[in-house]
Structure formats: C-alpha cells, structure tokens
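Sequence of Regulatory protein YycH-like domain-containing protein (Paenibacillus vini).
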Amino acid sequence: MDWGRAKNVLIYAFLLLNLVLGYQLWNDLQEQADSNPDFTSLESSIQKSMDDKRIRVLAKIPTETPELSKISYRFVNGGEQGGELVDLPVPVDSKLIYTPKELANALKTSLPNIGDYRYDEAASRAGEFMMLHPLVDGKWPLFKIELKLYYSNQKIISYREQVIEIGGSEGEKKQRVLSASKALGNLIENFLPEGSVVTEIELGYYGEVFNSDAHLPAAPAWRFILESGKEYYVQGISGDVISPNTEKTKE
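Predicted 3D structure, token representation.
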C-alpha cells in the first residue's frame, strides 16, 4: 500500500469535512440570527412596557414598509361566504408540516388554483384543517378569506373554499404602510394583556367579512398572533387596531 498517498487522501478528506462542518455551523448561526427578533427597532419606552407587562415577542419583527393601496373584493356565489364542503376526487397524503411549495405541488391536480393561495400554518388547527388565504398581487395574503383543507387518517380528503373576485384599486392612492415596530409598540402599550407572547407577525390585507354580493373594502394590515391563539390586526394606513372581537379602536 502506498502509505504516502493514503495519508494525503486522509488529510484532504479531513479538510473537506472541516469545510462542510464549518459551512453548516455558519448557516445555523445565520438562521438563528434571522429568526431572533430585533428589539432595537422598538423605542426604549416600548421595551420598558414589555418588561413591566412581562410581554415576550418570539416572532421576527419585519422591517418592510411597502407602498400599498386599499382594494375591494366580492363573494362570487351570490354573496355566500361559507362555501360548500367538496370531497377531493383522490385523497392526498398529508403530513404535519408543509412548505407552501410542497402543499401547492401536492394539490395542484385537485385544485388547479392552489398557486393563488398561501398556506397559513400559524392559523391552522391541528387535527381539524389547514388554512390558506388568497393572495393580493400574488404576494399579500387576504386575511379572513379562507380555503380550508380538511384531513383524516393523515390524508387531505376535502376542502371548503370562499370563492371571491378581487377588484382593482382604481382611484386608490398607494401609501407607505405603518412599520411593524410602530404597530407592535401600540399594541404593547395599549392593548396586549400582561404575560402575552407574540408568536407571529405578518403583513397582508384585512376587510370586514359579511354576506354580500357587493364589493367589500380591504386595507393593508399587520396581523399579530399570540401564543394563546388570539389575533390582533393593525390597519397599515390609519393605525386603527382591530381586537380579537373585531372591535375597532383608534390608535
């Protein structure tokens, strides 16, 4: 055996292993940094309120403040918003966690328009359904409008869709939305009860939901989900806060 050559092979193998392990460590640290909330965007008075009220924020605080306009939408089926329960022709294997792409690929045959929706893992209920929201401009979820996927015995067996048409924003001027940190600060100081834990923060659209065949308005809004399951929405233009009981209060 050529021991010199074998020694060189082992050295190169260890170097390659160290490079792989080093990259994995760097990648893990980056993911950890990305997932940790950055409280520097919150004013010192807000951070003090967090401490005083024992409020924790586990979600990353988004920094984006895009320019968005209000929109309108209407329910297609004569104003009926519930939608009928439809069985899938062929049940689809389910699993505990789906990425949006995986879910779309699994259901595109049974639901060709699945690409127009986004999976909402935070609002889905274990053992009951997986919830999706239609997308405005292919990016922003329209909260409260739902496509629910029901499953049993680890298979998706049926769905219930609120079929809508999203209207244009003609005449609506685009405005820069309120920052997530300001919206969160308002909630912390004035609305969140002591001991609250914020687990999810996302920008989308929120509109009043009721049976009607007329066009209904929807505006950009930040959604905050607590560990308890309660939701708060902060209107992205006016700053109005919508509580879990959908009672609107001025900022």
